[in-house]
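Holo model, adenosine-5'-triphosphate. Inputs:
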Amino acid sequence: MRIFDVFSMALRNMFKRKVRTFLTVLGVVIGSVAITLMMSLGVAVNLQHQQQIEQLGHRANRINVWVDTWSTGLNDIVVDDDMVASINAMPGVRVATPIFTLWTSLTFTHGPYMADLQIRGILPEAMPYMGLNVSEGRLLTDDDDFNIVFGSAILTQFRHPRDRWNWQMSPWGDISQEATLDVLSMPIQAFVDFGMEMPGRPYMIEGVGILDGMEWEAQTISYMTLDRVVEIQRDLERFLLSMGSFWGTSVDDGFSELVVIAENADAVSHVAEGLRALGLENVWYDMEWINQQRESTESLQNLLSAIGAVALFVAAIGIANTMVMAIYERRKEIGVMKVIGASIKDIRRLFLLEAAMIGALGGVLGMALSALVSYIMNTVGMPFLDNLIWGATGDVSVIPPWLYMLGFGFSCGVGLISGFLPARRATKISALEAIRTS
Amino acid sequence: MSKEIVVELKNVTKIYPMGDERIVALDGVSLQFERGKIYCLLGVSGSGKSTLLNLIAGLERPTNGTIVFKGRHSIDKMSEKKLATFRQRYVGFVFQSYNLMPTLTALENTTLPLIFRRIPKRTRNKKAMEMLRAVGLEGRWRHKPAEMSGGQQQRVSIARAFVNEPEIVFADEPTGNLDTKTTIEMMNLICKMAQVHNQTLILVTHNLELSRYCDEVIHIRDGKIEKIEDVSADKIEIA
Ligand SMILES: Nc1ncnc2c1ncn2[C@@H]1O[C@H](COP(=O)(O)OP(=O)(O)OP(=O)(O)O)[C@@H](O)[C@H]1O
Ligand SMILES: [Mg+2]
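Output:
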């Protein structure tokens, strides 16, 4: 038989028993809708996770580590240059840098104006991965000496000495007429100021860039290379020691804060495990709660998918039952077809195709119904389900094209598989059935 | 005129095991069927007529002996696949209870053997319409079996049996369900078609009257050939 003839004959047989076919197709529709919708909930959750990761931006790759440098004990871990180097060599790590904040602000003078700046020391290569970009100039490099990258709010931080402590003042204060204040063209004198002046050198610091952005790390904090900030800190510690007012741990006893950037969001948790294995306890990363949330919804997704699978399985039994009945009814017809020249292959294909078409029809209708129900869930049912399940915004049910294809494919597959044994049975029916009088 | 043997049975036995008993339906039958002749298998109920027919058509396999088609092929040794091709090419079958496909029209029922032979639609529909015209049903080609009388259904069944231009046509009590007038019409039709194409026709019947359409009458009793009668002299001339 030509395939087109098999097709048209199977189609006719299928619609000969309209009610039975309808009920069988209905079973497939319910099964395919169930599995598609259940999976669409999972897709929606994954999509939300994806969006959350995107919203995190560079923070998705970032791990913060704090080390207690104040209380001392035998097993205390010391984060020194060697430790940082070994962390940098860990697989999955793009760059790791200590973040060292100078104990006091540095006072910068520019003409009549002064600015008290909080200074961080950092390894320059980490800057681009922490979301630090410049609006002017450049970021730090390893070759930089007493160079600084200012926070984006630098121009509002310079004030006239008489307004120096007046935080109520509007930005620019009374230097608004000098809006073109240039902080990058020449070295600026800076000194440590406790109210009394620290003797020794005022540092001549040259600005190389101004950061961009409103995040707190880019706004009021200025950055210098780790080596130079440590050098200033040592001067400070020496001074305090000479004053008899030094307490706490020296910068030479290790850093208290680290930022580790993983190569990608997927590597983050692995790197974090590695850091914890080194004995670092205070390891934090934003991806952690996203991962935890995903894990908790995953079991729910699995449960829902299992329900869908059961529904589809029941539909498969329905198809098999229908086919067995159809074959029982058509024993004589099958016999006649054999007598007038049908091959085994023809008969197998006839019944297999009928089963597959029941599956396909159920699949098409099922996908249409899935689209409708998904739409209703996202409009009418969303507030309810949203609060109940994950309390995030966005669609509860998302059916991407691949899921439609999968749902349809599942239905056809279920038809084919459940038609397989009945079709085999049909081929075994003897040509003699044609003669037998019922 | 040299005679051409289409089918030859050599010492064919068919035994049906029934529990402990063994029913011998055919007992060492040897027969020859010639091309273009009309045969009548005559015998009482249970004598083994249908069994003989089914064996020749390859619907069943003999317990013993062999059935040779055209001197070359043993029907009893053919695979299922070979049998399908054999039936497509060489065999036509007219059933007592018509056995048309209920979902198909008269035309489609007639084309069915050609569909199995993978003949393209245009060709097979043309051929089937010719057959329907020959059996006087061209106006009814659209009708489903349920919309036709028994006689009309049997006509479609005859058209279907002859559509693939078979070498042998089997008819197991083709008129068993029909009245006398229709029986005569059907017999005329079948025999005429077989004659026109020089086909062998093997007819099973109880009805002694029908033997008048035949060249030879084969009397069967208890699975054995009782006698073979040449009745071609008395044969009814069909217009
Ligand atoms: N499938 C079978 N199983 C067991 N016995 C069978 C089978 N088919 C036929 N027989 C037996 O074989 C014998 C011959 O049967 P067959 O059908 O050939 O008779 P018949 O001459 O066609 O009779 P009728 O005129 O009633 O159709 C009978 O005794 C019958 O009971
Ligand atoms: Mg019989």
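DSSP finds twelve helices and twelve strands in chain A. Chain A has two domains: 3-55+291-434, 59-286.
Archived with the compound record.
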